[in-house]
Design a protein that fits this description.
Layout (H helix, E strand, L loop, with lengths): L14 H4 L4 H12 L4 H4 L4 E6 L11 H14 L3 E6 L16 H14 L4 E6 L4 H12 L3 E5 L6 E3 L2 E3 L3 H11 L5 H10 L12 H12 L14 H20 L3 H4 L2 H14 L4 H12 L6 H8 L16 H6 L2 H7 L17 H5 L24 E3 L8 E3 L10 E9 L2 H7 L12 E4 L20 H5 L6 E4 L11 E3 L19 E5 L4 E4 L3 H10 L10 H9 L10 H4 L11
Pfam families: ILV_EDD_C, ILVD_EDD_N
EC number: 4.2.1.162
Family: Belongs to the IlvD/Edd family.
Length: 577
């Protein structure tokens, strides 16, 4: 049930565990006493699960242990009963081969935890790239009232007189080192200045993009997505989120009432106006599927042609997330594109998005541009089609050198990332700035997990000549903090016999972003001959979670969800008696 009806103690889901004279209810109350709680602390009150992705190995979330306490404070003050649950932490920095391999595992854990315990609502603490979609996918499937608390961006980095953006400047200075422009001493200084505090990347990478999408969807408190992680305002937002979830439980306002077709279209519009990460394409398609909404690559392309890029934030722009926040944050940006939004849909914070944006303002017109002076005239992501990507591919063209957006060059093919790393500087490959670097076997199954390999390294000899961008094509993803003419998410992937598997070194490849095409200029008869010679690769996993993953994973164009999790159907409530 969804709506605004009052929910008293008898209607609380948790009461099925605690109320009555049966043995199980007695046992549940006794075990709660074992935890040290008095009856009046929890009986008849909304029980709120605080799902926390904190861990010692995730620097983006190193402050979430404290934020969970602020959430609990808000829950207590609003008359609820908070319980903190540790869930999987997906650290983009450390987890191999990629946390994308485990996004669906966290989504499944969140869903089943909410379903199987005596909870009435949830506050979701995340922010590092895959945690945001995973938690929201799980919450959408469980469909209990929920509020998302974004981890928030870290402080800007600093090195000498330079302000650094995590990820984006890492790639830049690493290329400078390979080009011989800086040395080990400078890199040691950069190592200590790039990431200065708790919080996720402070560029418009995947983390900032996805938390902004969560806010645009209506699943956060207003303005929450850009508050710096270590700002005192972040703790206040966490406490407000705790108080708000109690109200949502009492109103029985669930994700199914918020995560509508209109909400997902507005999230896509937001991502495009931000010049956001290409990873948002995969995640929003998967999230929408959990909400029973069919979102496609064509929706992204259709909306991209009508949405200007207004956020002047790296890697596509100049500033960082702290600048964006104090310039007005997401409410400020959305206030400039209200004509493109569905304003009469509900959010967790207000009756309508229109109410949520009332009074929103922009305080720095160069950080958040006007529609009359955008950073780019149309959305920063383009969807490509052609014989090399029949099911689609994407490119963040706002972060590429313009002269490469229409380009034909000879392919230089690498069969896996390890080989690419070992051979990219081999003079025998004859790589020039006109070459098209092609990486395959890096998709959902081939990676495995579709790692962020898509920003293929440029050979050292070209870097030393001043070349900083080339056309690069793969079935992998790339970090949202990256930049360059990188064609990503080629579907179907080469590992399952997609056309990328047919490319050979020397084949001419044409990229035409204005025409939205990616083409392998080889006769169809020759491609048929090559296709007939393909042999299926061996399975990556013989057992364990990886075996489940390879059996159930879908392709990039449909969101890389598990088939059994994305399937329609009902899941019964557990019997608690």
């Amino acid at each position: 049930m969804t709506g605004d009806g009052a929910t008293g103690p008898a209607q609380l889901r948790s009461s099925r565990w605690y109320e009555g004279d049966g043995l199980r209810a007695f046992s549940h109350r006794a075990r709660t006493r074992q935890l040290g709680y008095l009856p009046e602390e929890h009986l008849g009150k909304p029980v709120i699960a605080v799902l926390n992705t904190w861990s010692d190995i995730n620097p983006c979330h190193s402050h979430l242990r404290d934020r969970a306490q602020a959430v609990k404070r808000g829950v207590w003050q609003a008359g609820g009963f908070p319980l903190e649950f540790p869930v999987a932490t997906l650290s983009e920095t450390f987890q191999k081969p990629t946390p994308m391999l485990y996004r669906n595992l966290l989504a499944m854990e969140a869903e089943e935890l909410l379903r199987s315990y005596p909870v009435d609502g949830a506050v979701l603490l995340g922010g590092c790239d895959k945690t945001t979609p995973a938690l929201l996918m799980g919450a959408a499937s469980a469909d209990l009232p929920a509020v998302f608390v974004p981890a928030g961006p870290m402080l800007p980095g600093h090195w000498r007189d330079q302000v650094l953006g995590s990820g984006t400047d890492m790639w830049k200075y690493w290329d400078d080192k390979r080009a011989g422009l800086i040395g080990d001493c400078e890199m040691a200084e950069l190592e200590s200045g790039l990431a200065r505090s708790a919080g996720h990347c402070m560029t418009m990478g995947t983390a900032s993009t996805l938390t902004a999408a969560a806010e645009a969807l209506g699943m956060t408190m207003p303005g929450a997505s850009s508050i710096p992680a270590v700002d005192s305002g972040h703790e206040r937002m966490a406490a407000a989120s705790g108080a708000r979830i109690v109200e949502l439980v009492r109103r029985d306002l669930r994700p199914s009432a918020i995560l509508t077709r209109e909400a997902y279209e507005d999230a896509v519009t937001t991502v495009l106006a931000l010049g956001g990460s290409t990873n948002a394409v995969i995640h929003l398609i998967a999230m929408a599927g959990r909400s029973g909404v069919t979102l496609t690559l064509d929706d992204f392309d259709r909306l991209a042609r009508t949405v200007p890029v207004l956020a002047n934030v790296r890697p596509g722009g100049r500033y960082l997330m702290e600048d964006f926040h104090f310039a007005g944050g997401l409410p400020g940006l959305l206030s400039r594109i209200t004509g493109l939004l569905h304003l009469d849909r509900p959010t967790v914070g207000h009756a309508t998005l229109r109410d949520q944006l009332a009074g929103a303002a922009v305080h720095h017109d160069d950080v958040i541009r006007t529609a009359d002076e955008p950073l780019a005239g149309e959305g920063g992501i383009a969807v490509l089609r052609g014989n090399l990507c029949p099911d689609g591919a994407v490119i963040k063209h706002i972060a590429a050198e313009p002269h490469l957006l229409t380009h034909t060059g000879p392919a230089v093919v690498f069969d896996d990332y390890k080989t690419l790393q070992a051979t990219i500087n081999d003079p025998g490959l004859g790589i020039t700035e006109d070459s098209v670097l092609v990486l395959r076997n890096s998709g959902p199954l081939g990676g495995p997990g579709m790692p962020e390999y898509g920003m293929l390294p440029i050979p050292d000899h070209l870097l030393k000549q001043g070349v900083r961008d080339m056309v690069r094509i793969s079935d992998a993803r790339m970090s949202g903090t990256s930049y360059g003419a990188c064609v990503l998410h080629v579907a179907p992937e080469s590992y399952v016999g997609g056309p990328l598997a047919l490319v050979r070194t020397g084949d001419p490849v044409t990229l035409d972003v204005p025409a939205r095409t990616l083409r392998l200029d080889v006769p169809e008869a020759e491609l048929d001959r090559r296709r007939a010679e393909l042999q299926a690769p061996p399975a990556r996993y013989g057992r364990g979670y990886g075996a489940l993953y390879q059996e159930q994973i879908t392709q990039a164009d449909t969101g890389c969800d598990f088939r059994f999790l994305a399937a329609p159907g009902q899941v019964p409530e557990p019997y608690a008696g």
